Amino acid sequence: MHTMAETSLIPKKLPSSQQLGVGLGVFFRVGFLFFLVALLATGGLFAYRVLLVSNLTKQRNALKELESQFPLSDIERREAVAQAIEASKKLLGAHVRLSRIFPLVQTNTFPSVFFSTFSYAEKDHAMLVSGEAPSYKAVAQQASIFESLDEVESATFSNLSLTNRGTVNFNLKIILISSFVSGSENNMAEQTL
Hints:
Layout lengths: L1 H5 L9 H54 L2 H27 L2 H7 L6 E8 L4 E8 L2 H13 L3 E11 L5 E9 L1 H4 L3 H8 L1
Antiparallel strand pairs: 1-2, 2-4, 3-4
Protein backbone atom coordinates (compact mmCIF):
# COMPACT_ATOMS: atom_id res chain seq x y z
CA MET A 1 0.00 0.00 0.00
CA HIS A 2 2.80 2.12 0.13
CA THR A 3 2.62 2.71 -3.55
CA MET A 4 -0.83 4.11 -3.28
CA ALA A 5 0.28 6.83 -1.00
CA GLU A 6 2.71 7.98 -3.55
CA THR A 7 0.22 8.11 -6.39
CA SER A 8 -2.47 10.12 -4.80
CA LEU A 9 -5.31 11.59 -6.81
CA ILE A 10 -5.14 14.94 -5.05
CA PRO A 11 -2.23 16.97 -6.24
CA LYS A 12 0.03 18.46 -3.66
CA LYS A 13 1.30 21.28 -5.90
CA LEU A 14 -0.76 23.88 -7.71
CA PRO A 15 -1.02 23.11 -11.38
CA SER A 16 0.97 25.37 -13.74
CA SER A 17 -2.26 26.59 -15.42
CA GLN A 18 -3.39 28.30 -12.24
CA GLN A 19 -0.07 30.13 -12.02
CA LEU A 20 -0.57 31.45 -15.56
CA GLY A 21 -4.00 32.86 -14.55
CA VAL A 22 -2.34 35.40 -12.29
CA GLY A 23 -0.30 36.75 -15.26
CA LEU A 24 -3.39 36.93 -17.47
CA GLY A 25 -5.11 39.02 -14.82
CA VAL A 26 -2.57 41.86 -15.35
CA PHE A 27 -3.02 41.77 -19.13
CA PHE A 28 -6.77 41.68 -18.67
CA ARG A 29 -6.69 44.72 -16.37
CA VAL A 30 -4.47 46.73 -18.77
CA GLY A 31 -6.68 45.79 -21.73
CA PHE A 32 -9.80 46.70 -19.79
CA LEU A 33 -8.23 50.08 -18.89
CA PHE A 34 -7.50 50.76 -22.59
CA PHE A 35 -11.06 49.77 -23.44
CA LEU A 36 -12.42 52.26 -20.88
CA VAL A 37 -10.15 55.03 -22.20
CA ALA A 38 -11.28 54.30 -25.78
CA LEU A 39 -14.90 54.23 -24.67
CA LEU A 40 -14.52 57.61 -22.89
CA ALA A 41 -12.74 59.11 -25.92
CA THR A 42 -15.51 57.90 -28.23
CA GLY A 43 -18.14 59.34 -25.92
CA GLY A 44 -16.24 62.66 -25.77
CA LEU A 45 -15.99 62.83 -29.55
CA PHE A 46 -19.68 62.09 -29.90
CA ALA A 47 -20.52 64.86 -27.40
CA TYR A 48 -18.19 67.26 -29.27
CA ARG A 49 -19.93 66.40 -32.56
CA VAL A 50 -23.32 67.10 -31.00
CA LEU A 51 -21.98 70.45 -29.74
CA LEU A 52 -20.63 71.36 -33.19
CA VAL A 53 -23.91 70.47 -34.90
CA SER A 54 -25.77 72.56 -32.34
CA ASN A 55 -23.48 75.56 -32.91
CA LEU A 56 -23.75 75.18 -36.67
CA THR A 57 -27.54 75.19 -36.44
CA LYS A 58 -27.46 78.34 -34.28
CA GLN A 59 -25.11 80.09 -36.72
CA ARG A 60 -27.28 79.17 -39.71
CA ASN A 61 -30.34 80.56 -37.93
CA ALA A 62 -28.47 83.77 -37.09
CA LEU A 63 -27.35 84.11 -40.73
CA LYS A 64 -30.91 83.61 -41.98
CA GLU A 65 -32.10 86.28 -39.56
CA LEU A 66 -29.44 88.71 -40.80
CA GLU A 67 -30.24 87.94 -44.43
CA SER A 68 -33.89 88.71 -43.78
CA GLN A 69 -32.90 92.14 -42.43
CA PHE A 70 -31.04 93.01 -45.66
CA PRO A 71 -33.10 92.28 -48.77
CA LEU A 72 -31.19 91.07 -51.83
CA SER A 73 -32.23 94.15 -53.84
CA ASP A 74 -30.58 96.44 -51.25
CA ILE A 75 -27.38 94.44 -51.34
CA GLU A 76 -27.26 94.51 -55.14
CA ARG A 77 -27.94 98.25 -55.16
CA ARG A 78 -25.20 98.90 -52.61
CA GLU A 79 -22.79 96.74 -54.57
CA ALA A 80 -23.54 98.74 -57.73
CA VAL A 81 -22.92 101.99 -55.82
CA ALA A 82 -19.62 100.61 -54.48
CA GLN A 83 -18.51 99.73 -58.01
CA ALA A 84 -19.46 103.20 -59.24
CA ILE A 85 -17.46 104.77 -56.41
CA GLU A 86 -14.42 102.66 -57.31
CA ALA A 87 -14.71 103.68 -60.97
CA SER A 88 -14.99 107.33 -59.91
CA LYS A 89 -11.89 107.01 -57.72
CA LYS A 90 -9.91 105.65 -60.67
CA LEU A 91 -11.16 108.42 -62.93
CA LEU A 92 -10.41 111.13 -60.37
CA GLY A 93 -7.01 109.61 -59.67
CA ALA A 94 -6.05 110.05 -63.31
CA HIS A 95 -7.57 113.53 -63.38
CA VAL A 96 -5.65 114.65 -60.33
CA ARG A 97 -2.34 113.69 -61.92
CA LEU A 98 -3.20 115.57 -65.12
CA SER A 99 -4.44 118.58 -63.22
CA ARG A 100 -0.91 119.07 -61.87
CA ILE A 101 -0.08 120.42 -65.32
CA PHE A 102 -2.42 123.40 -65.12
CA PRO A 103 -0.86 125.06 -62.05
CA LEU A 104 2.57 124.56 -63.65
CA VAL A 105 1.50 126.37 -66.82
CA GLN A 106 -0.43 129.05 -64.92
CA THR A 107 2.40 130.04 -62.60
CA ASN A 108 5.03 130.06 -65.36
CA THR A 109 3.20 131.94 -68.11
CA PHE A 110 3.71 135.66 -68.64
CA PRO A 111 0.54 137.70 -68.04
CA SER A 112 0.73 139.07 -71.58
CA VAL A 113 0.85 135.58 -73.14
CA PHE A 114 -2.34 133.59 -73.47
CA PHE A 115 -3.19 130.15 -74.82
CA SER A 116 -6.14 129.47 -77.09
CA THR A 117 -5.99 125.65 -77.47
CA PHE A 118 -4.74 122.86 -75.28
CA SER A 119 -4.26 119.13 -75.81
CA TYR A 120 -2.35 116.50 -73.92
CA ALA A 121 -0.89 113.23 -75.20
CA GLU A 122 -0.56 110.93 -72.21
CA LYS A 123 1.62 108.41 -74.06
CA ASP A 124 4.38 110.97 -74.71
CA HIS A 125 3.62 113.20 -71.71
CA ALA A 126 3.41 115.97 -74.30
CA MET A 127 1.29 119.08 -73.92
CA LEU A 128 0.41 120.90 -77.16
CA VAL A 129 -0.87 124.48 -76.96
CA SER A 130 -1.50 127.31 -79.36
CA GLY A 131 -1.18 130.83 -78.10
CA GLU A 132 -0.57 134.49 -78.72
CA ALA A 133 2.15 136.77 -77.35
CA PRO A 134 2.62 140.53 -77.74
CA SER A 135 6.04 140.16 -79.46
CA TYR A 136 8.73 137.76 -80.61
CA LYS A 137 10.74 138.78 -77.55
CA ALA A 138 7.88 137.66 -75.26
CA VAL A 139 7.80 134.31 -77.08
CA ALA A 140 11.57 133.89 -76.58
CA GLN A 141 11.28 134.78 -72.87
CA GLN A 142 8.38 132.36 -72.45
CA ALA A 143 10.44 129.61 -74.13
CA SER A 144 13.39 130.14 -71.77
CA ILE A 145 11.09 129.99 -68.71
CA PHE A 146 9.48 126.68 -69.74
CA GLU A 147 12.86 125.16 -70.70
CA SER A 148 14.33 126.06 -67.28
CA LEU A 149 11.65 124.18 -65.30
CA ASP A 150 12.67 120.90 -63.62
CA GLU A 151 9.32 119.33 -64.54
CA VAL A 152 9.85 120.01 -68.26
CA GLU A 153 12.00 117.76 -70.41
CA SER A 154 11.77 120.02 -73.47
CA ALA A 155 9.78 123.00 -74.75
CA THR A 156 9.60 123.63 -78.48
CA PHE A 157 7.97 126.62 -80.13
CA SER A 158 6.85 126.41 -83.78
CA ASN A 159 4.67 128.09 -86.41
CA LEU A 160 5.50 131.61 -85.31
CA SER A 161 3.48 134.15 -87.29
CA LEU A 162 2.75 137.84 -87.00
CA THR A 163 -0.97 138.78 -86.86
CA ASN A 164 -2.69 141.88 -88.30
CA ARG A 165 -2.82 143.33 -84.78
CA GLY A 166 0.97 143.06 -84.36
CA THR A 167 0.89 140.09 -81.97
CA VAL A 168 2.62 136.77 -82.54
CA ASN A 169 0.77 133.46 -82.87
CA PHE A 170 2.69 130.32 -81.93
CA ASN A 171 2.41 126.63 -81.21
CA LEU A 172 4.16 125.17 -78.20
CA LYS A 173 4.99 121.54 -77.46
CA ILE A 174 6.04 120.85 -73.87
CA ILE A 175 7.24 117.37 -72.98
CA LEU A 176 6.98 116.77 -69.25
CA ILE A 177 9.11 114.34 -67.29
CA SER A 178 7.14 111.19 -66.52
CA SER A 179 7.71 111.35 -62.75
CA PHE A 180 5.94 114.73 -62.64
CA VAL A 181 2.85 113.48 -64.44
CA SER A 182 2.62 110.16 -62.61
CA GLY A 183 3.85 111.50 -59.26
CA SER A 184 2.86 109.96 -55.94
CA GLU A 185 -0.14 111.11 -53.92
CA ASN A 186 2.18 112.78 -51.39
CA ASN A 187 3.83 114.91 -54.08
CA MET A 188 0.43 115.94 -55.42
CA ALA A 189 -0.77 116.94 -51.96
CA GLU A 190 2.37 119.02 -51.39
CA GLN A 191 1.98 120.85 -54.70
CA THR A 192 -1.69 121.67 -54.21
CA LEU A 193 -1.09 123.12 -50.73
